[in-house]
């Protein structure tokens, strides 16, 4: 199959599964914010984000190695899957004695109550184990080519999570524990179903593990552990600084506002899922550069058009997604939406490192961005609150994209269309400032600037469609 058609087909399948599931989760935000107080939402989000940081440590990011090595025909699929499961189990056992470290993560409620995540240690560890196992299974079925099953599994997990959320929050009133436990149950059920439907039990062979392959997979995945931690820190440090320097109520409002830019990142996750399969091919170096450049420029057009729409719809989004007490959070969205756009582009540039198995270089780029993010959070949040956190996130993502765009040219010189990108960013900056200042006829300005961004970037998408049709 033509590589462009293959990418488009896989993206379409992943889009069905991911959009349907993630949209349902986002639409449930109004239910969550109505059932839990702002402080409870803040603590629940703190647990989720902490687990996200622990996940790559416990799993050693082996899920990334599963998709990369599982796609190469020279490796036995059975060995790849078994090694991944054994790695997760070993990592979990080693992590158990370190639970007192959770006491280092403190939070302050709006009522002046102080606590730490050590109170939730058992549910955090259970969440980590189920999340790591489910990720290995889902990555492996992608490597096997079961993209439809991968998409259906995403919908299934979301449906189970929502049903259990309604049961645990509305009926049982478990609040924080119910919110997190519903995710744990959905991950566990997903793992069981994948084992049965895809016959994953056939790929488990504990005898005579391929130690050479294991070393290769760990050499690939280990640099991605600090890389993944730093990625989460960039998004997570905002909430930690806000929860400690402000309070959990402010952190909760910021967290809900962050869900809107998450829709933009959703485009990245859908594309990257499909891209990781398509980028491993037998092209020559020049063909690969052309492929990356064509796809990258089209991708940037889509991302920035969506980011512009996010800026324009900031107020509407907070009205629809949350109860009125969260409405002030719309002021964070314009800045976060532009930042999310750059985050998407940096994710695309990261694929160059992953293709060439240069995961150390990927880690160094993320470390550069994380240092900027943490420093700016410490500097700006005491002075500007949530707006300072949003600015720190934006600047760190811009720095990450620029670093990777320059550094990755050593391996794959992606030919970005710089004039179009520059003009698009200027338009987005003007649009964001006008949204926050709310001048007379602000909505007219927003529609006009959104139209300008769309018109500037639509040509790139039309050219890609023509190329696809020509190759068909």
Q: How would you describe what is shown here?
A:
With about 475 residues, this protein is mostly helical. Helix content is about 80%, strand content about 0%. It has 2 domains: about 220 residues, no CATH class; about 250 residues, no CATH class. A hairpin with a 5-residue loop joins β1 and β2. α4 packs across α9 and α7 runs antiparallel to α8. The termini are close together. The mean pLDDT is about 85.
Rounded to the nearest angstrom, the distance between the terminal CA atoms is 9 Å
Q: How many discrete structural domains?
A: 2
Global outline: globular
> Which residues form runs of ≥5 with pLDDT under 50?
none
Derived structural class: mainly alpha
- Percent strand equals under 5%
Please provide the count of β strands.
2
Helix content range of the residues, please?
over 70%
Biggest beta sheet attributes: 2 strands, antiparallel
Give average pLDDT, whole number. 85
Q: From the alpha-carbon coordinates, what is the Rg to the nearest angstrom?
A: 22 Å
Give, in order, the helices and strands: HHHHHEEHHHHHHHHHHHHH
Strand order of the largest sheet: 1-2
Number of helices, where a helix is a run of at least 4 consecutive DSSP H or I residues: 18
Oligomeric state of the chains present here: single chain
Which keywords apply here?
2 domains, Polysacc_synth, 79% helix, 18 helices, 472 residues, mainly alpha, globular
């Amino acid at each position: 199959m033509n590589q462009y058609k293959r990418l488009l087909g896989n993206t379409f399948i992943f889009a069905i599964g991911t959009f349907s599931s993630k949209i349902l989760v986002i639409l449930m935000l109004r239910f969550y914010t109505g059932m839990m107080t702002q402080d409870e939402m803040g603590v629940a989000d703190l647990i989720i984000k902490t687990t996200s940081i622990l996940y790559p440590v416990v799993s050693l990011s082996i899920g990334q190695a599963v998709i990369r090595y599982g796609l190469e025909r020279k490796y036995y699929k059975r060995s790849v899957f078994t090694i991944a499961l054994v790695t997760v189990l070993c990592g979990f056992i080693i992590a158990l004695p370190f639970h007192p470290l959770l006491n280092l993560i403190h939070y302050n409620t709006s009522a002046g109550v102080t606590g730490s995540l050590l109170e939730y240690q058992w549910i955090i560890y259970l969440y980590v184990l189920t999340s790591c196992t489910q990720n290995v299974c889902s990555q492996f079925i992608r490597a096997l080519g079961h993209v439809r099953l991968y998409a259906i599994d995403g919908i299934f997990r979301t449906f189970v999570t929502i049903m259990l959320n309604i049961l645990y929050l509305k009926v049982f009133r478990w609040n924080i524990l119910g919110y997190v436990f519903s995710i744990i149950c959905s991950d566990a059920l997903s793992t069981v179903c994948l084992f049965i439907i895809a016959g994953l039990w056939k790929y488990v062979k504990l005898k005579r593990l391929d130690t050479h392959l294991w070393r290769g997979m760990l050499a690939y995945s280990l640099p991605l552990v600090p890389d993944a931690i730093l990625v989460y820190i960039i998004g997570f440090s905002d909430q930690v600084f806000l929860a400690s320097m402000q309070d959990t109520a402010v952190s909760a409002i910021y967290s809900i506002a962050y869900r809107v830019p998450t829709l933009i990142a959703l485009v990245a996750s859908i594309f990257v899922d499909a891209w990781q399969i398509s980028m491993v091919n037998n092209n020559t170096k020049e063909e690969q550069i052309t492929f990356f450049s064509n796809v990258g420029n089209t991708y940037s057009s889509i991302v920035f058009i969506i980011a512009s729409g996010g800026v324009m719809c900031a107020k509407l989004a907070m009205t629809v997604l949350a109860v009125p007490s969260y409405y002030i959070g719309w002021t964070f969205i314009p800045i976060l939406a532009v930042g999310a756009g750059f985050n998407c582009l940096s994710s695309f540039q990261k694929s160059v490192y992953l293709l060439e198995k240069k995961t150390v270089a990927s880690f160094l780029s993320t470390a550069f961005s994380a240092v900027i993010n943490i420093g700016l959070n410490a500097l700006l949040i005491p002075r500007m609150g949530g707006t300072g956190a949003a600015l720190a996130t934006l600047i760190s993502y811009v720095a990450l994209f620029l670093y990777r765009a320059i550094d990755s040219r050593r391996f794959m010189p992606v030919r970005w269309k710089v004039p179009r990108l520059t003009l698009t960013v200027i338009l987005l900056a003007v649009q964001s400032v006008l949204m926050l200042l709310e001048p007379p006829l602000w909505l007219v300005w927003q529609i006009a600037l959104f139209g300008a961004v769309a018109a500037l970037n639509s040509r790139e998408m039309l050219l890609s469609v023509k190329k696809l049709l020509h190759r068909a």
